[in-house]
Amino acid sequence: MGAKGLLVDYEWCTGCHTCEVACQLEHGYPSDQWGIKVHEVGPWEYAPKKWQYSYLPAPTDQCDLCGARVAKGHVPTCVKHCQAQVLKYGDIEDLARELAQKPKQTLFCCASA
């Protein structure tokens, strides 16, 4: 079995923070700790009338890719609850092939997976 990770298609992330809340509830983290955290990028104008404003969910050091859930055949809770379906869980090799097919994605390899 290969290493696992998360592929994030941040082109479509709406910044709803559902992944953060689902993770906190799943693991019992206090309100100031997360296994995944949504970061705001921008807003700033990088050319006339062109703006950068996006969101990027990123796993923290507390992320274990929901090892207990995955062991039962489920996906990590952040993936399950992502309303925009921008998070994908799987083998690093498979996710890397998807990453190469479009911009505005990033791949996170979680050490504890």
Task: Write a short abstract of this structure.
The chain has 113 residues and is α+β, with helices and mostly antiparallel strands.
Discrete helix count: 4
Measured by DSSP, the beta-strand proportion falls in 25-35%
Instruction: Please give the order of strands in the largest beta sheet.
Output: 4-1-5
Radius of gyration: 15 Å
Number of strands: 5
Please write the CATH class name.
Alpha Beta
Distance between the termini: 11 Å
Whole-number tally of structural domains = 1
Shape summary: globular
SS-based structural class?
alpha+beta
Oligomer: single chain
Please describe the biggest sheet, giving its number of strands, its sense, and whether it closes into a barrel. 3 strands, antiparallel
Q: What is the helical fraction, as a range of percent?
A: 10-25%
Segments where pLDDT lies below 50 for 5+ residues? none
Describe the 3D structure.
There is one protein chain. With 113 residues, the chain is α+β, with helices and mostly antiparallel strands. The chain has a single domain, classed as Alpha-Beta Plaits (2-Layer Sandwich). It is 25% helix and 34% strand. It is built from four helices and five strands. The strands form two sheets. The chain has a three-stranded antiparallel sheet with strand order 4-1-5, covered by helices on one side. A hairpin with a 2-residue loop joins strand 2 and strand 3. The protein is globular, with a radius of gyration of 15 Å. The mean pLDDT is 94.
